[in-house]
Amino acid sequence: MSNDSIGKSWIDENGSAPQSWVSAFWEFSRPHTIIGTTLSVLALYAIAQSTRLFVNPILLPLAFAWLACICGNIYIVGLNQLEDVEIDKINKPYLPIASGAFSRKTGELIVIATGIIAVVTAVLQGPFLLATVGVSLAIGTAYSLPPIRLKRFPFWAALCIFTVRGAIVNLGLFLHFNWVLGLGRAKSVFTGWSLNSLSLAIPAEVWVLTVFVIVFTFAIAIFKDIPDMEGDKQYNITTLTIELGKQAVFNLSRWVLTVCYLGATLAGAVVLSNVNLVFLAVAHLVALGLMWFWSVKVDLDEQKEIADFYQFIWKLFFLEYLIFPAACLLG
Fold first, then answer.
1. Where would I find the H helices in the chain?
2. pLDDT 10s digits, 290-327
């Protein structure tokens, strides 16, 4: 099949079942990042609601914030695939461009379209969402695109990932939803920006979640290179896995996650007075126990086991965006 065949069915990596263009687009969007972005938008909306005396049930801004963030997400992961085709043929041959399901032209059109939609939607929503999306796209571009291509350097690559996922998304979305809910009317997002009477104060709950996600995302950032070691080595992408070895990075990731969960539990007891501390502590300790239970069974010589555990770490990441807002709403 030619790489120029757009919209046609294609054979999956097992050579058996044909997949549709929609399925290829879903894979191109990197589903685990889409789920993470969706949950972060919903969680910050819930936390913003929990800090108010009365629930302000305006959903239109939530929908548009989700659209802007999802399109920004697709732009970032799509650009990375466009720049990593040869590497992905080794590390992730099932991705649409690497497999030939999408031509490069198709990938470029998707990236351009989603980038434009993300920015335009954010402009219509307000200054905080625009800042959140704009800075995220800028960092995502610098991460993948030459000549900067920060992903070549372990420190800068990790910094890009946890800065966007941790600080920018959480703080930016909270400020956006706090602003929108304070305006009290859905139509306000279309009638110009007004920062009158806006409080830029960020509650302790958001700071604790932000620090948790920053530390957690650091663990994801260093772990994600373990299954990609061969392709990265061949194309001179320097990672901690190449420099320190699989076992060292695997252990470092586990201990970073351990500090993350124990730190959040301690912070909950010390600085959070408006959350359900029992629920927060029990949920975090159970998640930590599950992580260690699975991790001791991982064989680092088996690529599938590494990949499965990496996906499990992402599931724990998703879970936090359910645990934390639930603890806030139950407080």
1. 21-28, 31-50, 60-83, 85-91, 96-99, 104-125, 127-144, 154-162, 169-183, 204-223, 229-234, 240-244, 246-271, 277-295, 303-330
2. 999 999 999 988 888 988 999 999 999 999 999 999 99
